[in-house]
Amino acid sequence: MTAGTEAEEIRVLLVDDDAMVRAGLRLMLDGHALTGPPARRIVVVGDAADGDEVPAAVAAGRPDVVLMDLRMPRCNGVTATERLTARPGAPRVVVLTTFDADEHVLRALRAGASGFLLKDAAPAGIVDTVRAAADGDAVLSPAITRRLIWLVTGPSPSADRRRAALARLDLLGGREREVAEAVARGGSNAAIAAELFMSVATVKTYVSRILRTLDLDNRVQIALLVRDARDS
Length: 232
Known about the structure:
The structure is a single chain. This protein has about 230 residues and is of the alpha/beta class. The protein is about 50% helix and about 15% strand. It has helices at about 20-30, 55-60, 75-85, 105-110, 125-135, 140-150, 160-170, 175-185, 190-195, 200-215, 220-230; strands spanning about 10-15, 35, 40-50, 65-70, 90-95, 115-120. Strand 2 (about 35) and strand 3 form a beta hairpin. Helix 3 packs parallel to helix 4, helix 8 crosses helix 11 (about 220-230) and helix 9 packs across helix 10. The N and C termini lie far apart (about 40 Å). The relative contact order is 0.11.
């Protein structure tokens, strides 16, 4: 089973070194019924206490979504995410963190994580995040996207990195470039649609095309590439 399929269930793997956190997430998520077509429920298919346990747990449980803690004693969540997303057909990874603008979160997003989730998020927010990740949608609010890009990335990119980013963005058509710039400003699909006089469905199509053309995994990586292409 792959992420975003129209299946009757969303399979989730929990990765956290705190057994209490894993137990709480399992209690809240397992069997949770999702409304709307198609009728689905969330099924927790396994858990792991460290990043080095992830490959075996993924092979055994075949999850659609992995909730990944960042700070673990042997293999941290960034490394585990890098290893997992490098594999073909990898599940979506959502980072679990207690910080909303932490450099490790940014590293995980660069590595291919689909977004992040605060550990103290409300149950409804956690369920919505799991569903969004499984459907291949963004799991970052515009405000969070802006904070990650502008507060965490540090100084301006080097000249070489800027040239490389510009060369990649040159692969996009004019309308695609406009959408990419709007994504970099932290716009939601609805906001971009209003700004560029498109339908939300058209924006989604453009975002998917941009990701495919640039060989990126998520909207934050689009935003980071656009930032790298700028002078400051």
